[in-house]
Automatic annotation (TrEMBL):
Chief location: cytoplasm
Biological process annotations from GO: glycolytic process
Known EC number: 2.7.1.2
UniProt family annotation: Belongs to the bacterial glucokinase family.
NCBIfam families: glk, PRK00292.1-4
Native organism: Aquamicrobium aerolatum DSM 21857
SUPFAM superfamilies on file: Actin-like ATPase domain
Domain of life assignment: Bacteria
Protein name from the UniProt record: Glucokinase
EC supergroup of this enzyme: transferase
């Protein structure tokens, strides 16, 4: 059991969110969401946004970061921040720190949230204790699994956002060759994240022989959803279709009859597009197992602080979860 008060933090490539749990059953003290680039280091951000704003000093911390958690110095994948737990004992006065992958926290949130914090996109009813999949396009593309065994929920972190993704249709064959690659390959994250949406948009413009007028994901999304730009509309359609394909692939891999859960700000902003039919059509298109996939429900998590809710559930009731903290749990002294 962690010593309370406990600092919990969801630290992504773009934004960071923090709260303090004063006791296991108490309401968390929440702090403003920050842009990570506004601070040189994570320690500086925690000091300025949390510790300097409250008399409640945390004794322990559970942090979820957008990176594989390995070693005593953990560099975020899409940020300049480096997490140094042993240093945080001195800089922040903490006695105990657990660091998880950010999508472990999202997976934990799936069982911490209620149905009013989700929007369903087709499928049947979930099997209560069956496997689940969580994926979310944001600054990058996160993927995790969740399984139930021996009366506990076990999150399965990984780097599924970096799997290959390829063309299927004649139009895909016009667009995909124009998508920016990484060392010669198109990973899912090259298309299914904020910068990925811009990559798709630029590729569509190049295929059509027109200049790309937008540089930001929000610009592409806005122009697509209000119908003012044809290339932006097609880019968002391709984005949603490819997200559906990948989500369906993951549902097959995990046989996730407990559901597939989309999380993150992008999914929340494009719920009407996700519900328009393209996503579900691509998700179901998995012959010879299309009927099995069609029965699997998909949900968009609409709670903006989902990862914090998952971390809070783990910190308060660790016995509910089988979280492997080997090599990811530091104690002062």
């Amino acid at each position: 059991m962690l010593t309370f008060p406990v600092l919990i933090g969801d630290i992504g490539g773009t934004n960071a969110r923090f709260a303090i749990l004063t006791e296991p059953s108490g309401k968390p003290l929440e702090f403003p969401t920050i842009v990570s680039a506004s601070f040189e280091t994570l320690d500086e951000a925690i000091r300025a946004i949390v510790l300097d704003q409250t008399p409640v000093m945390p004794r322990s911390a559970v942090l979820a970061i957008a990176a594989p958690v390995e070693g005593d110095e953990i560099a975020l994948t899409n940020s300049a921040w480096v997490v140094r737990p042993r240093q945080m004992f001195e800089t922040l006065g903490l006695d105990e720190i657990i660091v998880l992958n950010d999508f472990e926290a999202q997976a934990l949130a799936v069982v911490a949230l209620g149905p009013d914090q989700m929007e369903k996109i087709g499928g049947g009813e979930p099997e209560p204790y069956s496997r689940r999949v969580v994926l979310g396009p944001g600054t990058g593309l996160g993927v995790a699994g969740l399984v139930h065994s021996n009366d506990i929920w076990i999150p399965i972190p990984g780097e599924g956002g970096h799997v290959d993704i390829g063309p299927r249709t004649a139009r895909d064959l016009q667009v995909f060759p124009r998508i920016e690659t990484i060392e010669g390959r198109i990973s899912a994250e090259q298309m299914l994240c904020g910068r990925g949406l811009v990559n798709i948009y630029r590729a569509v413009c190049a295929a059509d022989g027109v200049s790309a007028g937008f540089n930001l994901p929000a610009q592409v999304t806005s122009a697509a959803m209000d119908g003012t730009d044809r290339q932006a509309q097609e880019a968002l359609d391709i984005f949603v279709t490819c997200l559906g394909r990948l989500a369906g692939d993951l549902a097959l891999i995990f046989s996730s009859k407990g559901g597939v859960f989309l999380t993150g700000g992008i999914a929340q902003k494009i719920v009407p597009t996700l519900k328009s039919g393209r996503f579900r059509e691509a998700f179901n298109d998995k012959a010879p197992h299309s009927q099995m996939i069609a029965d699997i429900p998909v949900y968009v998590i609409t709670e903006p602080l989902a990862a914090l809710r998952g971390l809070g559930a783990f910190a308060s009731t660790p016995q509910r979860f089988g979280v492997d903290t080997s090599g990811r749990h530091w104690r002062h002294g």
